[in-house]
Amino acid sequence: PRATFLQEYQPPAYFIERTELAFDLYEDYTTVLANLHCLRNADSTADNSLFLHGEELELQSLAIDGRPLAEDEYQISDKGLLIHRVPEQFELSIGTRILPQDNASLEGLYKSNKMFCTQCEAEGFRKITYYLDRPDVMSEFTVTIEAEQARYPVLLSNGNAIHEESLANGRHRVRWHDPHPKPSYLFALVAGDLHYIEDHFHTMGGREVCLRIFVEAKDLGKCQHAMDSLKKSMRWDEEVYGREYDLDIFNIVAVDDFNMGAMENKSLNIFNSSCVLCSPETTTDAGFQTVEAIVAHEYFHNWSGNRVTCRDWFQLSLKEGFTVFRDAEFSADMGSRTVKRVADATVLRSHQFAEDAGPMAHPVRPESFIEISNFYTLTVYEKGAEVVRMIHTLLGAEAFRRGSDLYFERHDGQAVTCEDFVRAMEDASGVDLTQFRRWYSQAGTPLVTVRDDYDAEAERYTLTVTQSCPPTPGQPHKEPMLIPLAMGLLGEAGNLPLKLAGQAPDAETADNTSTVLLLSEPEQHFVFEQVRERPVPSLLRGFSAPVRLDYNYSRAELCALMSRDDDGFVRWDAAQQLALSVLDEIQQQLTDGQEPSVDPLYLDACASLLADTSLDPALVAEMLRLPTESYLAELAAAEGADVELIHRAREALETALAQHAESQWLDAYRRSVVNAPYAPVAEQIAARSLRNLSLYYLACAKAQHIGLAQAQYAAATNMTDRLAALRVISQRGTQQQSDEALDSFYRDWQHDSLVINQWLQLQSAMPGEGALARVRSLMDHEAFDLRNPNKVRALVAGFSNNNSLQFHRPDGAGYAFLAEVIEQLNTRNPQIASRLLNPLTRWRNYRPDRGELMKAQLERLAALPDLSVDVYEVVSKSLQ
Ligand code: B3K
Ligand code: ZN
């Protein structure tokens, strides 16, 4: 397989001004007739041949301006159709036949349960018809769908329905027209026996938009939260970004078989049912929050993605990074800002940093790819969002808004680049982002090292800050980045006013206890004056940049930050660092053959945190959650992670924390009970979060506390509390307690596939040597289906990502199991197969005994005869 390079970008030689598609849907095949109104790009110097992308298509007819083409006028390959000579302007008619019912890749047109649906981003449209399947070719679409009326009463596509008719033979036909020119990746079609809930939204411009969520009849009762989230998103985008919706209808459809969360097709968003359906009885708090965030994300794409789209797929972060930033701010506004920030920073640090340090590391704007599907990554999405956030920090909210207004106005209807986005931000603010642009082109996580010096006599405090960035594949040497480092100084009585030497003490900053230092050089000094006591530096407030930070805090200093700093993120981070430092010490003790003893400083700090009822319980819960084993393994990568040692140390700390603060846990458990009827609101979510964490620690402290979990399980009226209790029973109870609870849960919920996915996922992470055997036997369970990505993610990715100790069994059986599943999915659904590879790509992070076994599985996969391009790219790069 060949790589595509950003450097090789060429504008299209032809445009398709209008696209008319006619679909005839049948049970054993579908025909697609495409009429493409083509026009030569006057700026192109290419010759007058036309290449159209097309894969897995059966060509049935081909004509230009009504004249059928002779066989020597064109050529077909497995990549597409080459027409040797075409005029300047012409109508191209292409008839193809496709087999959606056999399409297991869930890309292009396919069937999920009994409905037809599409997924075209990034390059799936070419599985529907021959086309210029690239985002810089934007076209006005008219789509006619014909199907059997009884089986498929609902026929949907983008834009407005402009014609409907019943046909004599039990079939019917609906025609849709989308007035907004769009790239093919935003095309969508749905046909099925669907039902909907409907609502309306009055836009700021006074238009009335009809909102519908289409689902199977049995799921109608689970749509309200998504509808509420949609309306909140529409309002928020008007208020915060001045963006109004631009059509009279907005539809969401839920489908069960979907490779990712959802897709922002113009006015016809298609969602994984797990990301739209919810009810208190079946969905956890986290599930409710996911639905809200994804509904918002896809809605926000209407502007950041659809009205202004990407020139090419290297620019993916232009729409994804920006839209993730937008949805994160939306979620922060809807719930607890600090908790949202902590959650995002956790994902970034535990997963994106790992990606940035691994064999698939790439810049936010990659320079080459073999398969674009492999680049829908945490780097493009989450780090990309951090890059936009840093621009927001550097410009300030007002100038940022001027920048986004300018960007949308200047580029409305265009397919543009990350550079265009940055330039709009610069033009609107006057801020020079020249050096900042390196965030788009350099891969790897910068390391910021801070050292300090306090001169008591001169009352001067100096920070020496250095930055560096490790080499990544293809980028041995890095230039310094522009890094906004938000910080403050903590004194005995609270945060100190900041007076930076050489900075005029103006009215606005004179009393400021927080500032943003701009790092631009490999080494810089920042001098603070009138510092009356030796402060504890509070660094990287709000996680102001996606960097690793190194400062040698003492445990006492971490305790001070944890209990008293003004910045919620720093408080959380101090608790994490304290836990890491204690875990390090325990590992050392275990290595030396000693009984682990846990620093009472840490335990006392946790106990008092837990007893402090003035704090946000959600933040307290996050502060008391220990880092995961997989994150600890990432941190230990340089020495070679020892999975058993990590596990034993973490268990020891968990037990110590559970027992030391048992009475506080019990108190927190009792006082955090929610009496009001379930609502997915911040206050209740916070209480349940602390309560369920307390339940977990109580079960760690004493076997008899399993009784609390059993009682909670029996009494639970919502899935958050029920599943949390089940998790505790299954992880900490006896075999019998665990089996009974899991069986009863299955009996109660076997009718609800999304609930059973949570049951599968919970079991994938169960401790003990039998874990792999359990996962294997669940793959044969009636509730499992290898064709459904949600089930594969729940059980298989659940096991390999969340069950560190059992996945990394010393005999390598965990790795062999994962490779087996990847082999089975390799040809059926390459995108999912490729995603599952992720844990194996980290083979260099582990001790050689495990690393070699992991590598052996990658080598076995590499040798498969029919390796998909998706799997090939990840496997081969991981072995390089
Ligand atoms: N844009 C889609 C992702 C498509 C992934 C294609 N492999 C969902 C989103 O980010 O909103
Ligand atoms: Zn997106």
TrEMBL record:
SUPFAM superfamilies: Leukotriene A4 hydrolase N-terminal domain, Metalloproteases ('zincins'), catalytic domain. GO terms for molecular function: alanyl aminopeptidase activity; metallopeptidase activity; zinc ion binding. Residues 226-439 form the Peptidase M1 membrane alanine aminopeptidase domain. Residues 45-186 form the Aminopeptidase N-like N-terminal domain. It catalyses: Release of an N-terminal amino acid, Xaa-|-Yaa- from a peptide, amide or arylamide. Xaa is preferably Ala, but may be most amino acids including Pro (slow action). When a terminal hydrophobic residue is followed by a prolyl residue, the two may be released as an intact Xaa-Pro dipeptide. Keywords: Aminopeptidase, Hydrolase, Metal-binding, Metalloprotease, Protease, Zinc. The keyword Metal-binding applies. It comes from the Bacteria. Residues 444-552 form the Peptidase M1 alanyl aminopeptidase Ig-like fold domain. Its EC number is 3.4.11.2. It is an enzyme of class 3 (hydrolase). Its cofactor is Zn(2+). Residues 556-880 form the Peptidase M1 alanyl aminopeptidase C-terminal domain. GO terms for biological process: proteolysis. Aminopeptidase N is involved in the degradation of intracellular peptides generated by protein breakdown during normal growth as well as in response to nutrient starvation. This is Aminopeptidase N. It comes from Sediminihaliea albiluteola. The lineage of its organism: Bacteria, Pseudomonadati, Pseudomonadota, Gammaproteobacteria, Cellvibrionales. The gene is pepN.
